[in-house]
């Protein structure tokens, strides 16, 4: 593979440092100009939104740009590109994180949008790959999670690429939120599940502005924040060069409900019980104390499941801590929800 040719010098020191470290050093092409240090928000979701979900994504992108955020996404059809277009319409700066070289930008039908992003002072962050393959989507998701400070999932199924991005965002220490939808609305069971696990549900423009100001105002030093997040990722994942597997080895490929034929990137509740009592994973040394206590309580109940109320009791009645621990562990593949609604140990895939 030839070394990537950076098209313009990035202006954000934190991003420049990120792209110069493993696993991204020499593997990412930058086209355009990376914005100076500003809050960066990923807006992601289903490739097949209804009209209401599409319009909501555009409004979210527009409002975030007006609030001063850099709106980011993977540029996919549906929610991702709608949010970017909304931000561009408000004069905002945008970062699109793509799975292939900018000369072969994917999807090809969005190349006019990518040209507009660059012309408007934003940037394309592209893996230096000549063609699109499933593994590059997985790496693209990880890069997107590393680049941003927070993620807002607009609408997504449980078995979708959006849930993979959410899992990577939790690992990277990003702030996570979801758009609120009426119960039973199509392609929202994934975002509803995240909300049930403790992610803030944003139902209005006021909610969005309040959520953004709450986390963006928590620190003025975004470069140090980015460094702390990078350290957290390094501690949790010793080998950052390996993209997460789309499915366990030997398992048949599942189908993403959003796009027939694409791999199932994440499936909360889809792991199988271990045939023997589980041992504490090696990476648990980097877990938060509440996550470790929650996992041990679930393991003690093996092969039966542990209720959320039992986990709350194990964490001294702190329901918020229990929800946060379950969210982090389940997105990391270490817990799964059984058919009876109880929590069980996952296989870590």
SSE string, helix = H, strand = E? HEEHEHEHEHEHEHEHHHHHEE
Relative helix content: 25-40%
- For the terminal residues, how far apart are their CA atoms? 29 Å
Overall CATH architecture of the largest domain:
3-Layer(aba) Sandwich
Q: What would you call the shape?
A: globular
The number of E-state strands comes to 10
User: Unreliable segments (pLDDT under 50, ≥5 consecutive)?
Assistant: 1-10, 219-224, 226-275
Radius of gyration: 19 Å
For the largest beta-sheet, the strand count, sense and barrel status come to: 8 strands, mixed
Strand fraction equals: 5-15%
Instruction: Identify the CATH class of the largest domain.
Output: Alpha Beta
Structural class, by secondary structure, is alpha/beta
Please give the domain count: 2
> Mean pLDDT, nearest integer?
77
Q: Count the DSSP helices.
A: 12
Read across the widest sheet, the strand sequence of neighbours is 1-5-4-3-2-6-7-8
The CATH topology of the largest domain comes to Rossmann fold
Task: Give a verbal description of the structure.
With 349 residues, this protein is α/β, with parallel strands linked by helices. It folds into two domains: 13-230, Rossmann fold, CATH 3.40.50.450; 282-345, Orthogonal Bundle (Arc Repressor Mutant, subunit A), CATH 1.10.10. It is built from twelve helices and ten strands. The strands form two sheets. The chain has an eight-stranded mixed beta sheet with strand order 1-5-4-3-2-6-7-8, sandwiched between helices. Strands 9-10 form a two-stranded antiparallel sheet. α2 crosses α3 (79-89), α2 (51-67) crosses α8 (205-216) and α10 (289-300) crosses α12 (319-331). The longest helix is centred in the first third of the chain and has 17 residues, at 51-67. Mean pLDDT is 77; it is low at 1-10, 219-224 and 226-275.
